[in-house]
Every structure is written in C-alpha cells, then in structure tokens.
Amino acid sequence: MCSVTDPVAVRRHRLLRAEHELWAEVLPGEIDVLDTESVATLTARLYRSTGYSETYLVDAIHAYATLAELPRLRALQDELCHLDLYRLRIISDTLLKADHDDSAMMATIDEALTDYLTPKRANQVLPNKQALRRKINQILKSLDTTIATDDKPADGDEGTDAQRYDMAVDPDGTAHLHASLDAATGTAVDTRVRAHAQAVGMTLLEALVDLLLGAEGTKVVLNMYKAGDRPDSPAYVPGAGHLSECEEERMMARVTHTRDIDAYADVEAEGYQTPETIAAYVEGRDGVCRWPGCDRPAPRCQKDHRIDYADGGPTAAGNLVSLCQHHHNEKTARRAFYLLDPETDVVYWLFDDQSWACDEPQGPLAGQSRRWQTTVGQRLTARRNRARREAQLRKRQREEARGEGTGWEEDGHPPF
Questions:
Q1: Where is the stretch described as Disordered (predicted)?
Q2: Nearest alpha-carbon partner for 46 in 36, 34, 64, 58
Q3: Which portions of the chain are predicted below pLDDT 50?
Q4: Whole-number Å distance between alpha carbons of 70 and 246
C-alpha cells in the first residue's frame, strides 16, 4: 500500500527498496547475455551470498531481465520500489507471449503498465495478482490478435480457441465433467447457473445438472460494455474482462438489446431495490468488489447503499457500491466505513483502527478505463491504416519490379 504514515507499510517498503537495490546491482540487465551455464554459475554464487533457492534466484533474473525491456516501468520501480519480486515475476511470465522484437509493441506495453502501476493517491492499494495478470492480458489483446491470452498450456488441440470438453468416470462411480471455454462464454454459463440455483433453491451443482438435463432455466442478463463512439474499442464483460475480437464476435451474435448505460448514472430509483439498469451502471463502473484487494466480479456482489436507505440514502449510482457478501458484512458490522468520491469514483475506506486506504474503480465505465479504451481504439485504427498503407506499397513495389506499372498517370494521379 502507498502510505507514508502506516508503520507496517513503511517497514515493508524499506524491505522492498533494499531488495530492489540488491537485484538492480547484482543481476545483469539482459537475459540474452546469459546461457544455461552462466545462469547456474550466477545462482550458485548468489546462493552463497543470500541463501535464496535457485528457483527464487532464477525468478529474480527473469523478472529483472523483463524489467530492463520496460524502461518507463524500470524508472518508476527505481523511484518507488513498490513492486515486490512476486508481482515483477507475474509481469515477466505474462509477457512471455509478447513479441519482444516489436519495439513499438513493447513501448506501448511499457507505457500502459507504467500508467497502471503508478499510484494516483495516498494509501492506494496495489493490484493483486489476478488483477495484474488480467490487466497485462488485456493490453496484449489490444495489441496482438494472433496470440491466446488465457495463460494455459496447449496440451491437446481439440476444438478452436482452446475450447475443450471431456468426461471421465472414476472406479468409485463418480463422474467428472471438464469444459474449457473462453472467458466470456464461461462467464455467461456461470451467470445462468447461479441465477437458476437462486431462483429454484438449488446448489450450484444441482442447478448445472438441472439445466444440462433440459430444464427451461431462468432468464438472465449478461451485460457487455462497449464505447458507442469508438467502434474499435474492446468490449468488456464483468468477470471476463476485455474481450478479444473473436470473443467479441461470439458475444455480439447473442446480443438482444442495446442501451446507453451512461444515461443511468444520475437516475434515482423510487424504492430500496436496485433496478437492473442502475445495477448495470454500478457494475460497469466498479468492475469488482470495492473492498481493497478483493477481486470478486461486481455482478456477483451486492449493491450497498453507502448512506442507508432508511436514513434517506437514495438508490442511485452515486450512493451505491459493489460489495461481496463477506466485505458487506464487514461494513455492516461497522468495522469499516467508506466514502465515495463523486468526481473520481474512488472509494476511501476508513477502518476502526483509524487507518485508511483508497480503492480505484476497475470497470469499463471508470475514467481511467474509458481513456484506455479510447486509446486502444485509436491505436487499432492507426495500426490497420498503417498495415493497409504498407500492403499497398508492397504491391506497387512488386508490380514495378515486374515492370507492370501501377496504371497511374505520370503525374501520380489515378487514371479517372
């Protein structure tokens, strides 16, 4: 956490700074100069000096080799020393599938990651491992549509886009079903199972079996967010994150209704229950539970009235926050209290020991996410235009090399 008053955070930061300075001094800047033998020699020498295991030391080498390819992020880490080796290794591992020879791509990744990991406010919590990995994959999706970003090994190539299904029966008579789906489809299935379980009073497993064996099920709404003024911006599904082009095409084929969700930002409902439209706006703003560090998707959270409805608090987005059941209980028990900034949608948590922390919204309707989606849309358009120009240039060069000409007049204008 970014705090200069929390004594635990201050001591933790001293450890992080000391560790960063250690690795920054003793580890080589680029992994390319190391072969297997020299890595083994380096880890052996460092083991004698530090007592860290070989696995830990190799992790450090890989993490700092990747950091060397991201100069902006490296400069931020040099200044703040807020990223531990665990998070640096997540960055390194998730970026393995990036095209490290594409300098423009790496520069864009560097810029986006640096912005994401730059604290904007005091007492802001760092993203947890799931959020960090998801953000990096979202950046990669926006830059390269030729790679899978599910971070799963491609063992067996059944189906397309790593979608697989299998069933096995154990000797004890139990059966195991396994389905690997893209995140958007999996989220849609999970939403339907949970809605059916709640509607008919079943467990999740019973509801899944009931649906698979032919029950009509319960009507559910799965919201997909997309900027109306930026057709090239990526679509977003809570729980699945930003979608790839293939995922978006599959989800768009199922869309039955579209609406301007921004229109519900200031709408106030008459009763206590949050209408579907206002809930959709709140979920699109929050993305996940707003307790610092919690990663439960907003659609699976309750909509908490910051000022209780009984005390005059309106049922409106400005007074509603997504909280999972566990953290809603913490707030109800008065072990924590929060304020919602109406301008930035940042939630400031006040705890009973007089400490505090702030939580940034992660949904597609949050200010930072809107800017990122717009930037992604502009970048995609620019990449497509550049690719088209380069393709046209290559075609003209080939025609000229064959002596065919381009069919244009000498003044360079088309012949019409």
A1: 362-416
A2: 58
A3: 29-30, 153-161, 406-416
A4: 29
